[in-house]
Amino acid sequence: MDITRRDLFQIGGKLLVLASAGATLEQIVGAEAPSDAYKMAGHWWGMIIDIDKCIGCGNCVRGCSRENDVPKGYYRTWVERYQVEERKQPVVDSPDGAMNGFPPLKREDIKAFFVPKLCNHCAESPCVQVCPVGATFVSPDGVVLVDREYCLGCRYCVQACPYGCRYLHPETRTVDKCTLCYHRITRGLTTACCENCPTGARQLVDFKNPQDPVHEFLRKNKVEVLKPYMATRAKVYYKNLDGSVR
Amino acid sequence: MTIPGVDGFMYPNEVELQWGLLIVLYPYITGLVAGAFILASLERVFKVEAVRPTYRLALLTALAFLLVAPLPLQLHLGHPERSLEMYLTPHTSSAMAMFGFVYLWYLMVVLLAEIWLEYRADIVRMAQTSTGLRHTVYKALTLGSENVSPAARTIDDKVGFTITVIGIPSAFLLHGYVGFIFGSVKANPWWSTPLMPIVFLFSAMVSGIAAVLLLYVASMKLRRTPIDMPCLDTIARYLFYTFVIDFTLEMLDLVHRTYEADESFRSLDFMVHTRLMFSQVVVQIFLGTLLPLALLAATQLWRFTQARRRALYVTACSFTMVGIFAMRWNVVIGGQLFSKSFLGYTSYKVEFAAREGLLTAVALMILPLAILVVLVKLLPPWEERVISKSGS
Amino acid sequence: MIRPALVLLAGVGVFLLIRAAVVPKAFGQYGHYRPAALGLVRQHPLAYAGQARCILCHDGQAAARKAGKHARVACEACHGPLEAHANDPSIKPKLPDVADLCRRCHEKDAAKPGWFPQVATAEHSGGMKCTDCHQPHNPHL
After folding, report:
1. Which chain B residues are closer than 8 Å to C27 by Cβ?
2. What are phi and psi of A72, to 5 degrees?
3. The CATH number of the domain where B286 resides is what?
């Protein structure tokens, strides 16, 4: 049978309508699909810190402060400088949390080094345990966060944290702390502190990523967490941490 | 760069204290509740007849203080309007959350129920004999039941007894839990000890019993009624025994810490000798414990005239009240004055007219007394006594 | 005794009603918290773009940096937060003040590790600016 031009137009027209209907449908339904490529179950976040690389410049403190609008006088991360003399208590300072680095140390005859500190994002966090309402929690990908719309500001978690990383935000009157730049790491970026660290002393790690350098790092180096006897299963590992560090 | 008020090194976020004067006040108030209730239960459950004159007063005292107890907490919260969340989504691993239910249980099922059962006959009588607003109030309090037949009264007694029996461990739980809220914080070596709930409980009992004794003496003076001395002597005796146990426990904690001398010891010891010298050594131990113990022991060992005994009891109890407050201060504030790095100390300055300041604290301590006056007017503790005195 | 029990039950009833109305349905989905909190935290705006974005346009500087000792130093570590600039290049970032910037890392300090290049800047440059001799992206002389 002959296919006339008319037939072609008719079939073409119907196909066109179908195609555009399909495309429109795709727009509506398809628009929903790629909303969130980040899957929490595929990650377990932590950090590794190499003490021998930290130069106490305070870039991390400044970076964090700008990225997260940290209120003045409070610290989501800070750097401590230790001066350890034989058979004496260590002398420690952290001027404004090392926001502007440190005044230079002249003494050459003692052991001195810098220790960056932040929330350890403990897997068995005592701060989460004591929260009366569930305003602070460990996310499915291992980050300890605060729900600032739910927090009462009772500060029980501040008391329960062995590392002193929490504070009450003076404006929101809720508890605040390092979020491991959750808003960045869920977008494939690194934390503000790691981005700004000029020597790579601080590095964000993902334990669930088989290619992450953390696996080799932990296998090849002597590492420690802060206050291991607290058994909080802290996820910030320090390389070359001196025993005098509190 | 030195931070004012800080000696040595504190973690940067530790410099400012999180729990201040109001959080010191809170265990003090709940302690008075637990202590007053246990004194009341002495009569009801352990049949110590001598303290009967203070039974109703002790219950009302407990209620007055329990109603005020949540206020310091509310004033301290960053968002008091969200405090209902503790009941809506309580985190079962949090002692603070579960305490909310212990408080509610104690208030509703123990204290209010016991007071209602004890006063029911009087409430019905007063509902029937009063007019106007008072009548409405009493009618509401009867909860619709006006049955005061002997059979009903027997049931009241039986149920009241059961409630008191349940009430004693509930009172222990009420204040023991507050101790646990501190004692379970492993991050803080000044707080973290299994002894904490027990020490809190016994010091609560001491302060509660002392408070009821003082209130009883004050009430009798105001009503120009003679004080029942056997009652007072019995209360003082129980206060003495409880105090001895409390002192022993606190000394045990001290000796244990000093002997074991773990990592925290040097730092804590220094703190006690400097920043807590006045509040712990002078006020809590000497004026607040040893002095009252000596005065009470003296009354047990030697004979004194009634007037002298009264004066000794009142003095001892007054110092006790101050001493137990100092104990709460030393636990709460002391626990935040030292750094968790054990390398430094900070200071705490009480503000005067701020939300968590001295004025607020004073107002919160006066408020329960005002409530007590209202309760005493509404539910008189002694009319029945006067009636039964003339009857018996 | 029934009356107080009834009062108690009424109270419990009211409480349950409030609870059903106020607590978000999804509470407890991942743990004892509101799942919306995760979204709330993630909403926070960026301040730092991350060096991968800078390199997209500034490949010349990136190449120079890669060849030298500052290879591991991120762009924004010196230039400050530049998300705004990355989104809208017409927003010109302020170049950092050289004197403070270099000194922050390279001032001699006994606590800094031995391998790290550090100088007593007062003696080192005789008052000259660091950039008079050192090119910041590749500082080797």
Report:
1. 89
2. -60, 135
3. 1.20.1630.10
The contact set of C with B (CB < 8 A) is 1, 3-4, 7-8, 11, 15, 18-19, 22-23, 27, 32
Check CB contact under 8 Å for B186 and A158: no
Instruction: Indicate the pLDDT class of residue A1, thresholds 50, 70 and 90.
Output: very low
Element (H, E) at B258: helix B229-260
Joined together, the tokens standing for residue B203 give 């010091």
**Least Cα separation, residue A134 to chain B (angstroms):** 6
Q: How far apart are CA C141 and CA B215, in angstroms?
A: 85
Residue C37 to residue A102, Cβ atoms within 8 A: no
Cα–Cα dist C122/C102, whole Å: 13
Choosing among B2, B7, B13, which should be mutated to test the A contact, i.e. which has the most A CBs within 10 A?
Answer: B13
Q: Is A160's CB within 8 Å of B14's CB?
A: no
pLDDT tens readout for residues B241-264? 999 999 999 999 999 999 999 999
- Could you give the ipTM of this predicted complex? 0.91
Q: How distant is the Cα of B143 from the closest Cα of chain C, in angstroms?
A: 6
Chain C neighbors (3+ CB pairs < 8 Å): A, B
* Residue A49 forms part of a structural domain: yes
- Residue B28: pLDDT band (50, 70, 90) is very high
Q: CB C43 to CB A183 under 8 A?
A: yes
Q: Is residue B23 part of a domain?
A: yes
pLDDT, tens digit (0-9, with 9 covering 90-100), for A192-207: 999 999 999 999 999 9
Query: Using a CB-CB distance cutoff of 8 angstroms, which residues of chain C are in contact with residue B159?
Result: 1
- Residue C86 CA to residue C101 CA, distance in Å, equals 22
Query: What is the number of CB-based contacts under 8 A between chain A and chain B?
Result: 128
Give the residue ranges of chain C where pLDDT is below 50. none
Q: What pLDDT digit, counting tens, does each position of B57-106 carry?
A: 999 999 999 999 999 999 999 999 999 999 999 999 999 999 999 998 88
Name the average pLDDT for chain B: 91
Digit-coded pLDDT (tens) for B215-238? 999 999 998 989 999 999 999 999
Asked if the Cβ–Cβ distance from A133 to B188 is below 8 Å, we say no
What mean pLDDT comes out for the span A231-241?
A: 97
- Check: CB of residue B238 under 8 Å from CB of residue B218: no
Instruction: Report pTM.
Output: 0.89
Number of domains chain A contains: 1
- CATH code assigned at A167: 3.30.70.20
Would you say how long chain C is, in residues?
141
What per-residue confidence (pLDDT) applies to A17?
A: 52
Q: How confident is the model at residue B127 (pLDDT cuts 50, 70, 90)?
A: confident
CA C75-C46-B82 angle, to 5 degrees, is: 145
Number of domains in chain B: 1
Q: What is the pLDDT of residue B164?
A: 87
Distance of alpha carbon C97 from alpha carbon B171, whole angstroms: 66
Q: Residue C37 and residue A179: Cβ atoms within 8 Å?
A: no
> Torsion over CA of A209, A212, A218 and A224, rounded to 10 degrees?
-80
- Let me know if B352 is exposed, middle or buried by CB neighbors in 10 A (0-12, 13-18, 19+): exposed
For residue A144, being part of any structural domain is answered with yes
Q: Do C7 and B143 touch (CB under 8 A)?
A: yes
Cβ of B340 and A163 within 8 Å?
Answer: yes
In a domain, A115, yes or no: yes
Q: What is the mean pLDDT of chain C?
A: 90
The verdict on residue A35 lying in a domain is no
**Residue B329 sits in which domain range?**
7-383
For residue A180, give how far its alpha carbon lies from the nearest alpha carbon of chain B (Å).
17
